[in-house]
Fold feruloyl esterase.
Amino acid sequence: MLALRHLGTVAGLFLLAHAVPAPVRRDVNSGVLGNLELFAQYSAAAYCSGNLNSPGDKVLCPVGNCPLVEAASTESLDEFNDSSSFGDPSGFLAVDETNKLIVLSFRGSSDLSNWIADLTFILTDDSNLCAGCEVHDGFWQAWSHIADTITPTVQSALSKYPDYTLVMTGHSYGAALAAIAATVFRNAGHSVELYNYGQPRVGNLALAQYITSQNMGGNYRVTHTNDLVPRVPPEIAGYHHFSPEYWISSPDQTAVSSADVTEVIGVDSTAGNDGASGFSIEAHRWYFIPISECS
């Protein structure tokens, strides 16, 4: 009996030592809310074809869903569109003199339904990114196809505007590319603010933990109610999300207030999107604005 009691105590201590800490939830302030809204509009602008083929121009959204961006003094420094790669990686690099920003914005998938249907779960090893890290093969290949073009233009912009903040952003598939790009640039010694909307999982647990702990700029992984896309590829296939998550609980077609956004801290937390009941594609299209309206 004593041995069994002792065994139970040891087992209890083992479980306590290995327990996953409960996720921390806290509301956001108005400053964070304003940034979340601004960069949602920068992500929306990457869906507009006029921002993908006219470097040197002001960043505009003909459908009217990026008024904060249009109100700023912006110039597109570089634009890219690689139709030969997985997901057709596209986007732009812009300078925002009003807000003192350098923004690299990646476009989401132009055909969400087909993209989800074609999404594979293959992880590829990339220990050069971080020890033990594995990345979604398609996302990594897409980034690799455009990295040599994007990297020097970003570095040139940083040299020209040394006191500006570098931000990487995107929605959906574009968010996945932004996460990878930010990780690479942080590894190179650059501070990067990462604002992502409706991002799918991009890699294994080692990668999620690494991005969470990089400390070279903030992570703002934004989700909306029961948006389906942040739940793929599934954890059962070896995929995990980095922290923190900023979960919007207000419904579609509704203005978002500070009370509607909760910061959820913890890798793979179920206190936000992953714990919401059901799933929705429409929730994926509404992040402060109809974010993919230009597509």
Observations:
- Residues 29-290 form a domain with the Rossmann fold fold (CATH 3.40.50.1820).
- The CA atoms of residues 16 and 208 lie 23 Å apart.
- The two ends are 69 Å apart (CA to CA).
- The longest helix spans residues 137-160.
